[in-house]
Amino acid sequence: MPDKPLIKVDNLVREFSVAEGESGFLGSIKNLFSRKKSIKRAVDNVSFSINPGEFVGLVGENGAGKSTTIKILTGILVPTSGSVDVSGIVPYENRKENSKNIGVVFGQRTQLWWDLPVRESFDLLRSIFRVPDEIFHENFKEITEVLDLGPLLKVPVRKLSLGQRMRCDMAAALIHSPRILFLDEPTIGLDILAKEHVRAFLKKINDERGVTIILTTHDMDDIETLCNRIMILDEGVIVYDGPTETLKERYVNEKILKIEFDGIGDDEILTPHITTVKKEGNIRWLSFKKDETNIQSVITKILGEYCVKDIAIHEPKVEDIVKNIYSTGNSEAAKRRSGAVAP
Ligand SMILES: Nc1ncnc2c1ncn2[C@@H]1O[C@H](COP(=O)(O)OP(=O)(O)O)[C@@H](O)[C@H]1O
Ligand SMILES: [Mg+2]
């Protein structure tokens, strides 16, 4: 039986009224007098539900509506219409109550006190959230260890590097043991090592503590390594919501096999439906289309015709798939943009 959803969003809409400005000097004078407004729909009739323990990646181009969605779920923004339930609470009606259940990290700005040493920020949060002593100490010890914050505790936040600050921000978001963690671009600007550190930590708290995590990101490696579910937003509309694996199956038609032959020389591979995309000594990268043939039949044919030492299947990267969905190809997002299908 499926769990009762922890987060439920129905027909969510958020509009912003934006001033339509004319550019240039004369334009800016005109703008002073005529206040023409237009409506921007940042989140356009979005529905989804998230079960306890899920790790969901919310992706989309700049301006797709990711941050607006997160802000509504955390109670920072009020929706224009639609309903939102986060662990039994309507976030924008009861922001304080909601904040007990959630942790929030915005990659682009810190929630910590800029001039205070890290440790003091934690103490402030502890009293704000009224975290009982025992829970605080246990939590603090564990998080400090896992995120290796020991050496940073005495350092004022403003002196931390971006990677160090992100680790502290995550610790701060978790100090009151929330069930849900929202992260808006947590790996933005981090170097590879810091990213790996952050990812390992997130994976651990999802696995071990069962914290439900919703993460927005530009970095498809975040999704690839962390999220079993991906939601793709395009101009405020969800264009894909499902397992990351299914996304690959659904959108990738071309598969690539890397095959090491036992002495093939310069021979061309003449098996039907197969194209050689790269050669390197006895190794060939062969591509085929899933709608023309399938992997079993390709491998059977090749093994029947050639001596093979090794075969590897190249998995498609989520990065390429998402790019493909946005490109003017045959994607639902592209069709929707051109008006060919209703959203
Ligand atoms: N406070 C605001 N006022 C006016 N427009 C906004 C505001 N916040 C967001 N928007 C607009 O809503 C759209 C979605 O923004 P956002 O949710 O920040 O996207 P993302 O996080 O996916 O980059 C964009 O077109 C953005 O310009
Ligand atoms: Mg954003």
Map the helices and strands.
Layout: E1 7-19, H1 24-33, E2 37-50, E3 55-59, H2 66-74, E4 81-86, H3 95-101, E5 102-106, H4 118-128, H5 133-146, H6 162-174, E6 180-184, H7 192-208, E7 212-217, H8 220-226, E8 229-234, E9 237-243, H9 244-251, E10 254-261, E11 275-280, E12 283-289, H10 295-305, E13 308-314, H11 318-326, H12 332-337
Parallel strand pairs: 3-7, 3-8, 5-6, 6-7
Antiparallel strand pairs: 1-2, 1-4, 8-9, 10-12, 10-13, 11-12
Helix pairs in contact: 9-11
Question: Mind explaining what this structure looks like?
Answer:
By secondary structure, the chain is α/β, with parallel strands linked by helices. Helices cover 36% and strands 28% of the residues. The chain has helices at residues 24-33, 66-74, 95-101, 118-128, 133-146, 162-174, 192-208, 220-226, 244-251, 295-305, 318-326, 332-337; strands at 7-19, 37-50, 55-59, 81-86, 102-106, 180-184, 212-217, 229-234, 237-243, 254-261, 275-280, 283-289, 308-314. β8 (229-234) and β9 form a beta hairpin. The model has no long low-confidence stretch (mean pLDDT 87). It binds adenosine-5'-diphosphate (ADP) and magnesium ion (MG). Magnesium ion is lined by residues 66-67, 184.
At a glance:
The protein folds into two domains: about 200 residues, P-loop containing nucleotide triphosphate hydrolases (Rossmann fold, 3-Layer(aba) Sandwich); about 60 residues. Helix content is about 35%, strand content about 30%. Adenosine-5'-diphosphate (ADP) binds next to strand 1, strand 2 and helix 2.
